[in-house]
Amino acid sequence: MKKFKIFMTLAVILPLVSFAQIQSKKVTFGPGKSGTLINGTIKGDLIIDYLLSVNANQTISIALNSKSTSIYFNVMEPGSTGEAIYIGENEGTNKFNGTASQSGTYKIRVFLNRAVARRGSSASYGLNISVKGGGVQSKSTDAKVAGTKYHATGNVDAALGNARKGSSTAKFGVVRGSGTAAIDVQIKGLLKHTLKFAQGEWTSNGDSVNAKKSNDEWEVILNDYEHYYIPEGIIYGG
C-alpha cells in the first residue's frame, strides 16, 4: 500500500489554472457507507474539485472510469497551493491508493487534457471514492460555536471599490450544510449580507454577485463594490 508521504518527494507545482472555471463539490457518504460512486460530465476547461475530509492514517482509494482517454484526476493534500501527490496524466492509470499522512480536506481534481479542453470537448465519467480505517470523517460532525447558530465565526479580508485586499475586514459566521454554506458577513459601518454557496455558485438576496476563485480562496464581489475573500476552509470546514 502506498503512503502519501512517499509521494511528497515527487510533488510538483501544477500549471496555473486561474483562467479555468473551477467547481468545488464536497464528497459525502451515506449512513454506514465507506465509499460512493459519483457520475458526472466535464466539458472544455472546466475543472471539478471533489473535496474529501479524511483522518490521518485512513486509506483512500480512487478510480476514475470513462470512455474518454483524455480525462484525468490529481490528488492534493490539505493546504496545497497547487502541489499534487498524485498526477493522473503522468501515471496513466486513473487509479490511486494511498494512506493519508495528515487529517484534513483532500482535493480530487478532475479535468480534461489541455488540448482536448481547448476544443471544447466533453466527457462523462464515474468516480469511485472510498475511505477505510479509523472512521470516515466526511460525514459531517460540525460543532456549533457556543451560544450561536454558526459552525465557525471570525474575520475575513475584505475591500471596498478598487482598494487592495485586506484594506478592510469583515466579521463572518457560517452555517454549513452538505456541500453548501450560508455565510453572514459584515464590514464595519455597512449592512450585513448573507452569502450563499451551493454547487460552486454564490448568491446573496437582493445583491448582484460576482465570484472568482484563486487556489483555495474565493473572492465574492457584491454590487461591484464590496469584496469578501472567503477561504474554502470556511465553506467546508476541516
Care to describe what's here?
- The protein has 238 residues and is mainly beta.
- The chain has 2 domains: 129 residues, Jelly Rolls (Sandwich); 85 residues.
- A hairpin with a 7-residue loop joins strand 12 and strand 13.
- The protein starts with a helix and ends with a helix.
Give the SSE map.
Elements lengths: L3 H4 L4 E2 L8 E5 L8 E9 L3 E8 L4 E7 L5 E6 L6 E2 L1 E2 H4 L3 E5 L4 E9 L1 H5 L3 E11 L19 E9 L7 E9 L3 E8 L5 E6 L2 E3 L5 E6 L2 E6 L3 E6 H5 L2
Parallel strand pairs: 2-4
Antiparallel strand pairs: 1-7, 3-11, 4-10, 5-9, 5-11, 6-8, 6-10, 12-13, 12-19, 13-14, 14-15, 15-16, 17-18, 18-19
Shape: globular
CATH class of the largest domain: Mainly Beta
Structurally, the number of domains stands at 2
Cα-atom radius of gyration: 18 Å
Q: Tell me the β content.
A: over 45%
The count of strands amounts to 19
Total of helices: 4
Spatial order of strands in the largest sheet: 16-15-14-13-12-19-18-17
Briefly note the structural class of the backbone.
mainly beta
CATH architecture of the largest domain, please?
A: Sandwich
Poorly predicted regions: 1-18, 135-140
What is shown here, in short?
Helix content is 8%, strand content 50%. The protein has helices at residues 4-7, 88-91, 114-118, 232-236, and strands spanning 12-13, 22-26, 35-43, 47-54, 59-65, 71-76, 83-84, 86-87, 95-99, 104-112, 122-132, 152-160, 168-176, 180-187, 193-198, 201-203, 209-214, 217-222, 226-231.
Key structural traits:
238 residues, mainly beta, Jelly Rolls, 8-stranded antiparallel beta sheet, 19 strands, disordered N terminus
